[in-house]
Design goal:
Blueprint (H helix, E strand, L loop, with lengths): L2 H8 L14 H25 L9 H36 L4
């Protein structure tokens, strides 16, 4: 992946997010990644809705980058689901039985 393409995909800003709960660092990290990707996808959608003719990324490049983001989102959503299910199982297993 070219440096320009990497910058398009990853963006420049950090994203704050609500924590899922103490000890769910895997969920937290994945949720932060999802928020970053959702934000970047929205930025690309905005660029696609008003293309620049001043030397910015081409529509084709933006579409390729958006497709990559969609693939990363699918992977991250799957990881988040697995992590949240594992966290829920751990909470149930550690709950007092009575």
């Amino acid at each position: 992946m070219s440096e320009e393409r990497s910058v398009l995909l990853l963006g420049h800003s950090s994203v704050s997010y609500a924590e899922t709960g103490p000890g769910d660092s895997s969920c937290d990290r994945t949720e932060a990644e999802l928020n970053r990707l959702w934000k970047r996808r929205a930025e690309i959608d905005q660029m696609l809705s008003a293309p620049q003719s001043n030397g910015g990324p081409s529509v084709g490049e933006l579409m390729k980058t958006r497709a990559e983001i969609e693939r990363h989102l699918a992977t991250a959503e799957h990881r988040w689901l697995e992590a949240s299910e594992a966290a829920e199982r751990a909470r149930v297993e550690s709950a007092p039985r009575g």
